[in-house]
Amino acid sequence: MVEFNHITKKYGPVTGVQGVSFKVNPGELFGLIGPDGAGKTTLFRMLTTLLLPDEGSLSMAGKDVVQDYRFVRSNVGYMPGTFSLYQDLTVAENLNFFATLFGTTVAANYALIEDIYRQIEPYKTRRAGDLSGGMKQKLALSCALIHRPLVLVLDEPTTGVDAVSRKEFWEMLKRLQAGGLTILVSTAYMDEATLCDRVALIQEGRIMQLDTPEQVISGFSRPLYAVKGERIHRLLEFLRQLPQVVSAQPFGDSIHLTLVAEHCLPEVQASILQERPDAVTEAITPTIEDCFMDLMPATHG
Amino acid sequence: MKELAVFIKKEFRHIFRDGRTLLILFGLPVAQVFLFGYAITNEVKDATITVWDQSHDVMSRKLVTKILATDYFKLAGVAENYADISNGFRSGRHMLALVIPPDFARKFQQHEAQVQLLLDASDPNMANLLANYASGIIANFTRQELRYAPSNQIVTEVRMTYNPELKGVFLFVPGVITVILMIVSTLLTSIALTREKELGTMEILLVSPLRPGIIVIGKVLPYLLLSFLNAILILGLGFTVFQMPMAGSMPLLVLELILFIIAALSIGIFISTKTASQQVAMMISLFALMLPTILLSGFIFPIDSMPWPLQWLSNIMPAKFFIIIVKGIMLQGVGLEVLWRETLVILAFILVFTVASIKNFTIRLA
Amino acid sequence: MDEQSVIEARDFTKKFGSFTAVDSISFTVAKGEIFGFLGANGAGKTTAMKMLTGLLTPTSGQARVAGFDVWHEADKIKRNIGYMSQKFSLYNDLTVVENMTLFGGIYGMSMPEIKDKAAQVIDKLAIKSFKDRLVASLPLGFKQKLAFSVAIFHRPQIVFLDEPTGGVDPVTRRQFWEMIYAAAENGITPFVTTHYMDEAEYCHRVSVMVEGKIMALDTPAALKARYDCKNMGEVFLKLARNPG
Predict the structure, then answer these.
(1) What angle do CA B268, B271, B277 make, to 5 degrees?
(2) What is the pLDDT of residue B90?
(3) Nearest alpha-carbon partner for B60 in B135, B126, B114
(4) Smaller CB count within 10 Å for chain A: N or C?
């Protein structure tokens, strides 16, 4: 449905995106996972015809994005990173405006957005600027969907959004995907990666890895252990000075640990118990964030 | 076309829901007209004059009486020598002095009379103005007494004919229209377009099937209409409150108004294609356009008395040409046969900025 | 007021017309404690923070911040706190050293003090090669770490951190938290808001705001035990989704 072919984009001497290639299949929920400045927005702006790639080619539904930009514009639903609705227009006015812009009406495509729009319909005479963050987001999504696009492109839709609203938002995306829509979404929240069918981990303009979340996780090179205990910060300092420890990173209430070799585990466990009798050490499955951090130094160098 | 209609509707909603835009649109013109009409005026009234009459004959007394008979001048006193006069300037007793040399009546009949006007040039504009008024009266006097107009007085006579009451407000209304149209058209359109860039909505508009031309037209049409209403409002005030004359053709004036508005709008669009934020657009509109418009268009300061680099600069101010056109139509009653050159200049501005805007208004972000 | 508490709020309330943004909240924050201030968007977090930092006058209630009263001594509060947010941190068009000089100067530090402290920060962050570069040219991660260093440059009693790690890469995010820990150990009290639930676990105590009220306030371990949850993310979802 979407194909990036060796795409490079430079901003003056700075390289925004370097030789990126990937395909998104029809009906797939595809995630671009990476921190701010990794190149996610640049990739999406090229896909939505707002920027021209310096090198490489890019297609959507078999049509070249640069040549057939009119086709793309009629068939892509785009939600940019900044809140992009008219604050001084009401909910209904915003929706009607975008519907007419794409040569359609709200009534014609109501079924598609009903699930989302119903939640904000009670406030339809309220100005968009007066809505809460979660409601603004629902309105923006309704506006991006109103012309029944082939592909939905969402640039960091959950940035700055609280955990509850983020969860609701992903539930909405899942339902849209079930309806057959192809969705590309970018996020800096690593935990959201597992909600995608496939993810590209991106850092400094390059894709470090591209696979299903399960495959990314199973590709993690070493056994991983979690140490749980009180006063994480002190525990962390203690672990880092152990010679057998390669890396020790805080993850919420525990510390994720990789060791120089698997057989070192008993020694390490013994040292930990000596220092902290109450600490618990166990082998765990890595998270996407572990994988991301593991991949990072490689591209850093 | 339906897209354009909803776009325009949206634009009007933005305007009518924003108190500040409305205030700039309709409060500012009214305030400016009254401000310039009443408070800031370059009319001369009761200017103090000292007379040193060395002749003391019938003619010289007649001339003095003639000057003092107007509302413009009021006698401050008589002087006996130049020292008196310069003391008077220093103490602020008078603003100008008239010196009539001896034997005035005889020389006058022989067409070789001279009078001297002394002015305080520390305020050159005022000095210039007083000199014009006084020499105008003297020229009038000469014509009445000798029944012919000396050739060196023609300039003064022209002014007196087209604005016989020398009303400052007649000269200011065209200036105010020009400045207001520049503000409304250039400033507001450039802000309206850059606001969409700041909001992020420009991204959505560009990604939509809407053609860029429609975006620009949709943005511009409401302001064209509002600017035009504005011009009518100012003219209406000029006619009713200040009894402005309308010597020439109204349809021609309307046509020229629309042309000037389009020129200002095209400059506004050009600015917005070059800037990314409302603030920068506002700064450019205000400082790079408004100030030169006010200062260099001949609205306040006469272009003739500017040094040549500024005179040359004034030629790239569309406002200068528009003020000439409006004054020409309203005060002198002339038509295109006289104003075709100025009209062509305005058309050229439209062409240049529209082409530049189209070249710069890309269908993409960068 | 307790010797060891740096923030003490009692029945702290802010109303906007008929809407109560902050509804009679009471809590204390101890010196050197990392205090997590959680809540959904629109729960009243930002309003409460603005009142505590002296930017907004409360409608009713009492609060002392850094030992000063929010009603009458807002200017003294401002001298004794630091502030950093994801949105504004440093001036992009000034160099690293110029930013430090500026903020040090704003808080009344002397030139030798500023020089001394700037050298320390540059050394600690290992950014010697960046010190005369414009902040705009630094990578985001560096910027955020630098911003934090500048926010605690004048050794405030409390540093308010409003979503300091939004969009930052996972490695830098952890380095950032290590800086927060170090500051807390030096007696500066970090007061943090975040949307990353794993970061809530790093706090000594966490409060969860729902609809203007503090619904829960305790250590992460105690909260997880009380609500029978595996992690703070679940605690937050439970509280914010089913208020009351």
Answers:
(1) 110
(2) 84
(3) B114
(4) C
The residue of chain A nearest to residue B13, with distances taken between CA atoms, is A89
Confidence of residue B155 (pLDDT cuts 50, 70, 90): very low
- To the nearest whole Å, the CA of A26 is away from the closest chain B CA by 21
Q: Select from C59, C11, C68, C19 the least CA-distant residue to C42.
A: C19
AA letter at C230: K
Which CATH topology does A221-285 take? Alpha-Beta Plaits (3.30.70)
Query: Which residues of chain C have a CB within 8 Å of the CB of A226?
Result: none
Amino acid B359: pLDDT = 80
Rg (CA), chain B: 26
Considering the domain architecture, whether residues B88 and B150 belong to the same structural domain is answered as yes
Which pLDDT band, with edges at 50, 70 and 90, does A181 fall under?
A: very high
Q: Which of B143, B161, B179 is the last residue of a domain?
A: B161
* B312 shares its domain with B191: yes
Residue (of B85, B88, B53) closest to B68 by Cα position: B53
Contacts 24+ apart (CB under 8 A), B159-163: B159/B132, B160/B136, B162/B331, B162/B332, B163/B331
Q: Which of B145, B161, B177 is the last residue of a domain?
A: B161
Q: Say yes or no: B211 and B322 in one domain.
A: yes
Please provide residue B263's backbone torsions phi and psi, each rounded to the nearest 5 degrees: -60, -45
Find, among A8, A18, A167, A157, the residue nearest to A77 by Cα.
A157
Encoded amino acid at B291, one letter:
L
SS3 call for C192:
strand
* Pairing of β C35-39 and β C189-193: parallel
Rounded Cα gap, residues B36 and B255, in angstroms: 25
CATH of the domain at B103: 3.40.1710.10
- In sequence order, the β-bridge partners of residue C64 are C8, C69
Per-residue model confidence as pLDDT tens digits over C196-222: 888 999 999 999 999 999 999 999 989
Domain boundaries, chain A: 2-217, 221-285
Domain that holds residue B105: 47-161
Rounded (5°) CA angle A270-A271-A276 = 95
Q: Please name the residues between 191 and 210 in chain C that touch chain A, using a CB distance below 8 Å.
A: 195-202
Architecture, CATH, for domain A2-217: 3-Layer(aba) Sandwich (3.40)
**Contact yes or no for A73 and B3 at CB 8 A:** no
Kindly state whether residue B93 falls inside one of the protein's structural domains.
Answer: yes
Quote the percentage of chain A above a pLDDT of 70.
98
Domain count, chain B: 2
- Does the residue B188 lie in any domain? yes
DSSP per-residue letters across C26-56: EEEEETT--EEEEE-TTSSHHHHHHHHTTSS
Q: In this complex, which of B18, B208, B364 lies closest to A51 when CB atoms are compared?
A: B364
SS3 C229: coil
Rounded to whole angstroms, how far apart are CA atoms C30 and C41? 26
User: Nearest CB to A93: which of B13, B200, B206?
Assistant: B13
Which of B185, B293, B234 minimizes the C-alpha distance to B30? B234
Yes or no, beta carbons of B3 and A88 under 8 Å apart: no
Would residue B227 count as lying in a domain?
yes
CA-based angle B154:B160:B161, to the nearest 5? 90
Interface pTM, i.e. ipTM: 0.80
Contact B194, B281 (CB under 8 A): yes
**DSSP assignment string, B229-279:** HHHHHHHHHHHHHH-----S-HHHHHHHHHHHHHHHHHHHHHHHHH-SSHH
Say if B298 falls within a structural domain: yes
> A68 to chain B nearest CA, in Å?
12
Task: Mark whether B352 and B291 lie in a shared domain.
Answer: yes
- Nearest to C184, CA basis, from C34, C72, C70: C34
Q: Do B102 and B183 belong to one domain?
A: no
Q: Which residues of A touch B13 (CB under 8 A)?
A: 88-89, 93
